[in-house]
Amino acid sequence: MDALQIYFNILFDLEKKILCIKCSDCEFYCPNHAVTMNSAWLAWECIVFAVFICASSCFPLWSRKKDAAAAGSAKRAYIFAGGGVSVLSMMLSVARGTLGVRSFLGFPSELVYFGSSMWETLYGMILAFPVVCLVFIPVYFRLHTNSVYQYLEMRFGSKSVRRLAAATFLLRQVLNLAVTVYTPTVALHAVLGLPHWASAAALTVVTVVFNLLGGLAAAIRADVIQTLTMVLVSGAFIIQATIKSGGPAQVLQDNIDGGRMKFFNFTWDPTVRVDTFSAIIGQLFMSVSIYGCQQTFVQRYCSMSSESKVRRILFSNVPAVSVLFSLSWVVGMALYSLYRYCDPLMSGRISAPDEVLPFYVQDKFAFLPGMLGLFLGSIFNGALSFLVSNINSLSTVTWEDFVSSAPAFRDITDKQQLTAIKIIGIIYSIIIMIMSLFVRFVNGVVEANMLVTSATSGALLGVFLLATLFPMANGKGALCGMIVSHVITIWMAMGRLLYVNTKVDMLPLSVKACPNATVRALNPRNMAVVVNETLSRYAPVFEAIDSSHTAKEAVSNNIVFDSLMKFYSISYMWYAVIGTLVCVVCGVIVGYLTNQESDKFDERLLHPLVARMARKCPGQSHTFTTPDRERTSEENEASDKTCDTIVEDQKTQTGLAGNKIYYIDSIEPLKTRL
Fold first, then answer.
1. Quick one: which of 355, 435, 12 has its CA closest to 187?
2. 4Fe-4S ferredoxin-type domain: which residues (predicted)?
């Protein structure tokens, strides 16, 4: 423990001595030093920032009373937006929720320092929309439940499966939202020198206020405002940087010459961080898990008035997401062309790759008053709208799947339920703020987001596939599959973090075109004395570390150790694929071995095509509780005109050991459900 403490003291000592070097004749700033600004100019930027935040936050709340009146109750308006959201607004909200503010800040820096490999994840992302539309929407769109994970209890008759799936969603979203909260703190720290904790605390306070006053409809309107703002701001960045770099042709040629534009790179090596194959398959599994099995999106689908509108939204998002996703990468192309010979990271003008975009705004847009404030406001508000809509889903799932079943809450009114949901949201906001302070220890916002999403997607997608596509699966198989999937993916993720050097080498840049003053802070002659003093002081510690490395090299000759290292080295892009396959295989096998008469369920909880095929397959007869008939065309038309088919009657079939069978019989307009 003492040696470890000394080791960390070395790092902190070095950081303090290196980062506190003054740049008296530097035009910009050294790491951890705010830019020298004219006070009047800074005041104007702060005014623009504050006005934008207030306007974009207050406008979505303007119609909250109308939302409650349209929904019939405040609780329904908070959870389902009253069912009156337009298709265009919902499409932009889904696209916005797909990308998040992380893409706005993280993707440009990803291209500048690591190239376009992550850009290809767009392939898997757009393929996921038709898959979700064809596989999941026909199954549970008509089941009006406040939590999508209630469907799993209906299908498997198991509260354990439902709660484990809900807990997986909660864990994933809390970790991802920690990255989201961290994102604007990077920009504010880079530009104003504001501590990360202060920015996170301010964002949390505004989120709590928004959560108390607004609901899903307000969050969707905030998403629309934020999406349009990000498009306009990104367009301004692209135009200005392209002009400064010499035009579109020059930008493209610079990126090709610099090795940034490498597409269709099939390495067939699962240990590569990302290549084209993993971008297609790995991202497809992650995206299907997000769009089809996550409360955040299903909650939006069920706020629409018909299934046909949901299909239009999902298919319309293919071009919308393609454009919005690529916009940030084009910004990165322009930034690389602009700074390829004067890298702000190498020259010491920024302290982390994710700060390159804030630095660019500060560097090149000083001539346009208010642009920096608008940029900071866009990032802050983007994180705010994303956080608010997800806090809505987190608190709803926590209430519906965990808290509401407690004896103390069973008979409370809708108003009391809404109060409890909002209190849960406040608790989540505080937890997420605290966790966001640790994101800085992961390699960038993109890396952190991809690792969390992939590690938790496999079990969640696997259990929903078991429920919709595999009639032989039962509660025991689903629970076993999820547990085994979680164990394997967590084992892989922990092994990767602890034993594998996950640091990715940056692509080469240069500082040869920088003025001498801007690289003065990193002059090796200035740092030599500092490093030598530290090394001489802690030489025994480094000798102990070196001897431990020698021992590890001897152990690495072990075959088992080498195999584990290869296993841990598998890219996180494959975690979702591995987790899904493990969950499905285990679930099917255990389902076959433990199949009982009490596993009967309503066949309409399966995908319609699977249900028809299962009835015609030879072998063991399938145990369905629904009469063997097809719905008439009139019934299909009726179901398409409403978000219909509430699960209202939970009848108990005699002779099935008390197992509850859920019937889907009553068709009501959407507005009468809660």
1. 355
2. 8-40
Task: Assess contact for 111 and 252: CB atoms under 8 A.
Answer: no
Cβ within 8 Å of residue 492, ≥6 positions away: 455, 567, 568, 570, 575, 578
Q: How much is the pLDDT for 519? A: 47
pLDDT of residue 528: 35
Distance CA(506)–CA(494), nearest Å, equals: 24
Cα 125-130-134 angle, rounded to 5 deg: 140
Contacts of 633 (CB under 8 A, 6+ apart): none
In angstroms, the CA 325 to CA 121 distance is 10
pLDDT of residue 455 exceeding 70, the answer is yes
- Measured CA distances, 321 to 202, 283, 382, 473 (Å): 30, 14, 16, 34
Sequence-distant (6+) residues with CB within 8 A of 170 are: 394, 397, 398
Our CA dihedral for 217, 219, 220, 221, rounded to 10 degrees, sits at: 90
Please give the C-alpha separations between residue 290 and each of 294, 458, 459, in angstroms, as whole numbers: 5, 11, 12
Give percent of the chain above pLDDT 90: 26
Q: CA 587 to CA 594: how far, in whole Å?
A: 10
Tokens 């990715």 — which residue? 504
Which pLDDT tens digit goes with each residue over 337-369?
999 999 999 888 888 888 898 889 888 887 888
Q: Is 601:625 a contact under the CB 8 Å cutoff?
A: yes
Q: Give the pLDDT of residue 563.
A: 84
In our burial notation (b when 16+ CB lie closer than 10 A, e otherwise), range 563-596 reads eeeebbbbbbbbbbbbbbbbbbebbbebbeeebe
Q: Is the pTM of this model over 0.90?
A: no
Residue 618 pLDDT level (bands cut at 50, 70, 90): low
Q: What angle do CA 661, 662, 668 make, to 5 degrees?
A: 160
What distance in Å separates the CA atoms of residue 616 and residue 628, rounded to the nearest whole number? Answer: 11
What is the torsional sign of CA 311, 313, 319, 321? negative
Give the 3-state secondary structure of 258-270: CCCCCCCCCCCCC
**Average predicted confidence (pLDDT) for the chain:** 76
d(CA 377, CA 358): 12
**Which residues share a beta bridge with 624?**
601
- CA distance to 83, 103, 283, 389, per residue, from 96 (Å): 19, 10, 17, 11
Phi, psi of 513 (to 5 degrees): -95, 0
| AA identity, residue 137 | I
Confidence of residue 187 (pLDDT cuts 50, 70, 90): confident
Using pLDDT thresholds of 50, 70 and 90, give the confidence band for residue 226.
Answer: confident
Helix axes 575-593, 276-293, angle to 10 degrees: 60
Chain position carrying tokens 């694929």: 577
Residue with more model confidence, 627 or 379: 379
pLDDT at 562 over 70: yes
Q: Are 619 and 638 in contact (CB under 8 A)?
A: no
